[in-house]
Automatic annotation (TrEMBL):
Name of this protein: Glycosyltransferase involved in cell wall biosynthesis
Keyword list, A-Z: Transferase
TM ranges: none
One Pfam family recorded for the sequence: Glycos_transf_1
A GO term, aspect molecular function: glycosyltransferase activity
Native source organism of the sequence: Sulfitobacter undariae
Length: 407
């Protein structure tokens, strides 16, 4: 969809940082990194920005100075607060999240119970405020309705994918209906939808069209920041000799780890090492059982909880990154691998074709035989011969140049 940019900055932007607040202290996912990149960009600009987050106790609103300070503490550039008693009383919350909640409440210029959200936003934010939600979190009727009550407010939402609606068999029980209701609210309230790829736009608009009018949309590929490698931070169990292969991502059915386990089972004891890097997800008991059954001499090794630097070091040293996913919204691990100079074998899906172009090798994600043949062949070659084409990773500067001219 072709639309013209207004090219005039709004009187204020309001970034929803609910996802980052909830996931503080965990290994950042791709979606987390997007929300963090938006926060970093907006607090660095000489333009008014506010931050909104849903907490277990209600809502917090941070002004520009508060959001900047929160970003510093979230990223370790400043010391986080010790959790107050109220945060410590909340069950099931890791210590880092308790600290982040304490910081958010301390830095807030205003706090409200759920019923007071609209009044709080109306009191502090100017007409024409531009609300940005990039994390698929907090897309509730209460929040979107409260923002809409600000005169001339504009609501922009970044959609990463609609995979839960396309592949419900891969999702946690009960999450598909929740996601569907979120997307229905996006269709109802959004003035603009930001898409990470043309493929995501096409798939999302097909879904939204079933429910009514489709909001206008723009496409801007996500940026990638090269992660510094850190071999010192690697655990002893991650020490392997090349050639080895690596796959990165949550161990869930959509990522198709079962295919790779089949390949390595066929390759036998002389197979190169396969590193499976990512936390365990959901609906994947058969794969978990196969991983649990691996012996100490197995040619497959499961690693989780790695730092960004340690993971980057493993990717950089790998013979190739393997990415046999059934579906992706963007495919950040493949982009990061190519940026580090590591070859990529991935599924032949439209998202990868759009983002990676000629820089990856595409295989049928349903064929164990094809993957086995290619992996066996690549394991015997010098890695430098496996590069297809040079790759220029998309940048956040280019992303924000597009997005912030519309929002």
């Amino acid at each position: 969809m072709s639309i013209a940019s207004h090219k005039i900055s709004p009187p204020a932007r309001l970034l929803d940082f609910t996802r980052l607040l909830r996931r503080a202290g965990r290994v950042w996912t791709g979606v987390d990194r997007v929300e963090l990149a938006y926060m970093a960009e907006l607090v660095a600009r000489d333009e008014p920005v506010w931050g909104l987050a849903r907490t277990p106790l209600g809502y917090v609103l941070l002004d520009h100075a508060g959001l900047l300070e929160f970003h510093k503490r979230l990223t370790g550039a400043a010391q986080s607060s010790s959790p107050v008693l109220l945060s410590r009383l909340l069950r099931g919350m890791p210590d880092a999240a308790r600290c982040a909640l304490t910081d958010a409440r301390k830095l807030a210029v205003a706090r409200s119970l759920p019923r007071g959200l609209a009044r709080m936003l109306h009191r502090h934010l100017p007409a024409g405020t531009a609300y940005l939600n990039t994390g698929h979190s907090n897309l509730t009727q209460r929040v979107l309705g409260a923002v809409r009550a600000i005169p001339d407010a504009q609501i922009s939402i970044l959609i990463h994918d609609v995979i839960p609606l396309e592949y419900p068999q891969y999702q946690r029980a009960g999450t598909v209906d929740i996601f569907e209701r979120k997307m229905q609210r996006v269709g109802l309230h959004a003035d603009l939808i930001i898409y990470n790829s043309k493929d995501t736009q096409q798939r999302t608009e097909q879904v939204l069209a079933k429910w009514g009018a489709v909001p206008r949309g723009i496409v801007s590929h996500l940026g990638v920041i090269a992660q510094a490698t850190d071999v010192i931070d690697l655990p002893a169990v991650a020490t392997v000799e090349p050639p080895y292969f690596i796959t990165v991502g949550t161990i869930e059915p959509r990522k198709n780890h079962a295919l790779l386990l089949d390949v390595w089972e066929n390759l036998g004891p002389d197979a190169p090492m396969l590193l499976i890097c990512g936390g365990r997800g959901w609906n994947n008991d058969a794969v978990f059982a196969r991983l649990d059954a691996l012996g100490t001499n197995a040619r497959v090794r499961e690693l989780s909880g790695l730092s960004d630097g340690a993971l980057s070091a493993l990717i950089q040293g790998a013979q190739a990154l393997l990415f046999p996913s059934h579906a992706e919204g963007f495919g950040l691990p493949a982009v990061e691998a190519l940026q580090l100079g590591t070859p990529v074998l991935c599924s032949n899906i439209m998202t990868f074709r759009e983002i990676l172009a000629d820089s990856a090798v595409y295989l049928d994600h349903s064929s164990v035989t094809i993957w086995e043949s290619k992996i066996s062949d690549w394991s015997k070659q010098a890695r430098d011969t496996l590069r297809v084409h040079d790759f220029e990773a998309p940048t956040w500067a280019a992303h924000f140049k597009v997005v912030l001219s519309f929002t």
